[in-house]
Amino acid sequence: MNDNGALGRTTDIRIRQPQLDCKSKRCIINLDKPRFEKIKVRHNLAYNIITERSALNLLAKSEQIESELCLTEKGTEIVQLLNNKQVGSFCKEKKLNIFVLEQLLNQEGDKLITWQQLNKMRGKKGAGRKPVWFSAIEGKTLANQHTRVVKTAYKTSENNFMACKVILKAISEDRRVQDWVIFKNKDQEHSYKFGKVISKPKESTYTLEHWNKTNNSEGYEIGLIKYSGCEINEKGSENSDESSYKIAKGFKVKKRAVPRQMISKVRKSDSMYNSETKIYKLNCPKEALFPLEVAMRTKPYQEVAVILGSRVDEIINKYIENNGTKIKLKAIARRLEKYRDLQIITDGSVDIEATDVGKKRLGIRFVVSRINNQAIEEEVSFAGALEDWPKSTRAELGAIGFALLVVPCGSIVRICTDSSSAISVIEKSSLVVETRNRLKVRNNHIGWLIQECCKDKNLVLRLYKVKAHSDEKFNKIADSLAKQGRILGITSRLKEFWSNSLETYPVWNTTVIDRPVR
DNA sequence: GTGATCCATGATACTACACA
DNA sequence: TGTGTAGTATCATGGATCAC
């Protein structure tokens, strides 16, 4: 155990394997005698030595191995709820990776999932009979067989983060596949809708069929019924009677397609509706798909796997590589999403003190100075730094580009900058349409980003040249953020987003060369 | 024209368990 | 360890539809 070489690693594996075999949440070095007697693991030398050691009351400890092999501190071991015969059945199960009762409860920790739901969420078929150990767990824990609410002693006191979750997938590239997806209704912050992609044209939008959630009493938690008279289609469809909803194609990059096995058709004989109505059911508890809804209702709040963003979020994801910067920009975008007329002061600077060109950082910052042509009380600003090619115009363009990423779609944006060269680059870029000519403009990477961003968001961009270091309040703030952004701000890197338009582009040391190359 | 998917239905394979 | 049983999902089929 103390050996750092091959012997130690082999011992580690030999200890790890029987832990999984005997369904222990802790390293078997820690197990007491009654727990060892629950299940015998055969053909494992390390296990035999540890059991013999336990019988002789000898002590062996390794804090490092024990902590590495501890699956969870919390949770009720399923083995503790079963008799010896049922434990035998439970330990034969090798595919589902179930160790504690909490893995079988829903996100709110008050209901037991079914055998079929467990299998589906683990990507298994779930064919065959329900095993005796699962039936025993049901018998022991369920307070109500119909609602599957568990007895108070087995409920979790807070949000159950050990619950099984459905892993959403990206929407299939195959235009024939009618994916089931979940999407957010803009008016209801944490409420999600179901949709079926019925058409994937080559243009910029997909068409979704909106399916409404229904409550039922036939043993499944969520039923899906096609919705006529869709309330959320005012943006996508001109006809309010249609149940279709058009979505931006950028949507497809998000993992929001529900795996096929999670949705199945309800048999006509089981349906409470007339025989003509198609009903689908969700083969998992609703919380397994919507953990964010649960997390917002229960405290403490923790970030969870499924977060669906807005179009602005998707555009930020498209251009920015660093997660920290993305989070900051999205937070600013949320504050501005109500407004359609914004004036933003931008500024950029180069770290002239750094002698190593490779380590020079570009300080970028912007401050929102006026909203709907009125001065704002609360400061909305961003300060950060940009990597690669330390040029002052690039810094100015970076600040403008970042500012455009946070503004709402369809808005009028007035950018105030002290760099006439930045204004010149943007104006030149807007006049050049051909890809070949675009690449002849200096700083074309950010210039292209700005043009694409305006196009993606349908922005009206107006550029104003202001005097550097003027006395205006927000210009001062922008100046004061200069050093802060360059020294303390998160260093961001732009994605090579134009790889969608260009098959090849010049790169030096993994960095895009954004000036004319001969 | 080819191939993939959807749909409904019936046949079959799969899985776990009981028992000898 | 092998066999039989029960419950369930999956497969095969063929027509219709749609994308390539």
From TrEMBL:
Domain RNase H type-1: 338-487
Domain of life: Eukaryota
Gene3D superfamilies on file: Ribonuclease H-like superfamily/Ribonuclease H
Xref: PROSITE patterns: RNASE_H_1
One annotated GO molecular function: nucleic acid binding
InterPro entries the UniProt entry points to: RNaseH-like_sf (IPR012337), RNaseH_domain (IPR002156), RNaseH_sf (IPR036397)
Cross-referenced Pfam families: RNase_H
Name by which UniProt lists this protein: RNase H type-1 domain-containing protein
Lineage: Eukaryota, Fungi, Fungi incertae sedis, Mucoromycota, Glomeromycotina
